[in-house]
Design brief:
elongated, 4 helices, three-stranded antiparallel beta sheet, 3 strands, alpha+beta
């Protein structure tokens, strides 16, 4: 995949995340990690086993963009916002 293809995929995924409710956005983010590769760290999912140790925020990394939040849904929202920023920056670079 080229840089432009990555950018288009990130932008489409960001638009998709923005149309979903919190539960659906969390599910879509987990599927995107599986489909495109990346990392999803959800401290709430593992809290009973590890107690209070470990990461405090959910982290999501897909296609070279990262987002964090109190929940996986918030991390997906932050990821979409950051993916749009990358898209806008790449568009400015192409225009220059």
């Amino acid at each position: 995949m080229t840089g432009d293809q990555h950018d288009a995929t990130r932008f489409d995924l960001a638009l998709h995340f923005e149309t979903l409710g919190p539960a659906s956005r969390e599910h879509a983010a987990r599927l995107a990690v599986i489909d495109f590769g990346g990392t999803a760290i959800d401290p709430q999912a593992d809290r009973p086993r590890r107690g209070r140790w470990g990461p405090l925020e959910a982290e999501l990394s897909i296609l070279g963009v990262m987002g964090t939040g109190a929940t996986m849904a918030e991390a997906a929202t932050a990821w979409a916002r950051n993916a749009r920023r990358v898209h806008d920056a790449m568009a400015e670079d192409r225009a220059a």
